[in-house]
Amino acid sequence: MQLQDQTNPSKSEIWAVGGGKGGTGKSFLSANLAIALSNQGKRVLLIDADLGCANLHTCLGIDYPESTLSDLLTGRIKRIEEAIVPTGIADLGLISGAQDILEMANPKYAQKMRLLKQIQELDMEYIILDLGAGTSFNILDFFLIADQGILAVLPEPTSIENVYRFIKSVFYRRFRKIAREDSVREIIARAMDQKNENGIKTPYDLIEQVARMDGAVGEQLKNEMYSFRPKLVVNQVRSKDDITLGFSMRSSCTKYFGITVEYVGYVEYDDHVWQATKRRRPMLTEYPMSSSARGIHKVADNLVHHKQLTIDYLVKTAPRR
Question: Which of 35, 111, 233, 258 fits 284 for a cystine, CB–CB 3.0-4.6 Å?
Answer without folding.
Answer: 35
